[in-house]
């Protein structure tokens, strides 16, 4: 099995990188059977974005402080672990943002697409599902759409639901909502198209973020699942990502 090791810049990851290359060798990522990522969730997301279109399986080893998307680190029997791993297919979200100036920008998100107010003024956002207006004016800090893989990240901290993998649903979660008073979000089918329209954007500017890509001063954001993109993530059978998402709901 040809392995390509990628490591974050921390000393912990770099030391593990040297040990693993010495034991298993090193190949170029595009010529490898599996890409092994050493670091935390942030570096894992960076690598998944980098090789999103290559369909090469990715196996993460936790070398950071946070590692929800990572497997436990062990440098022994790595090839047999990878061979026995369970594959989880992730589909990113596609964001098409239109700025106040009329410019359109597209980006992809593995975790979530979020809209956030840029100033002290609360955001006023209309929410449409498949072209139908569901909330005429959400007043608050913002709103997000989260994937199952991202449901335990920012979405969970905003009191959104934890979503099991394979459920083909997305979380639509408000961020510190003020109006409507009792609305705490919704669960929608993954094939649904979500549109956010920013009201009074001259007085209440809003930015849109797809994972680590931010676009400021948006007037409209359209979000849909990119079913044509399949990210192949590998997890240990006894501690796979689906189990982690289930367990997160009881912690």
Any overview of this molecule?
By secondary structure, the protein is of the alpha+beta class. The protein has two domains: 3-91 and 229-248, 3-Layer(aba) Sandwich (Rossmann fold), CATH 3.40.50.10330; 93-225, Sandwich (Tumour Suppressor Smad4), CATH 2.60.200. 17% of the residues lie in helices and 41% in strands. It contains five helices and 16 strands. The chain has helices at 11-24, 41-50, 78-84, 154-157, 241-248; strands at 3-7, 34-39, 58-62, 86-90, 93-99, 104-109, 112-117, 123-129, 132-146, 169-179, 186-189, 194-199, 206-210, 213-215, 218-225, 231-235. Strands 5, 6, 7, 8, 9, 10, 11, 12, 13, 14 and 15 form an eleven-stranded antiparallel β-sheet that branches. Strands 1-2-3-16-4 form a five-stranded mixed β-sheet, with helices on both faces. The longest helix has 14 residues, at 11-24. The chain is elongated.
Topology of helices and strands:
Layout lengths: L2 E5 L3 H14 L9 E6 L1 H10 L7 E5 L15 H7 L1 E5 L2 E7 L4 E6 L2 E6 L5 E7 L2 E15 L7 H4 L11 E11 L6 E4 L4 E6 L6 E5 L2 E3 L2 E8 L5 E5 L5 H8 L3
Parallel strand pairs: 1-2, 2-3, 3-16
Antiparallel strand pairs: 4-16, 5-6, 5-15, 7-9, 7-13, 8-9, 8-12, 9-10, 10-11, 12-15, 13-14
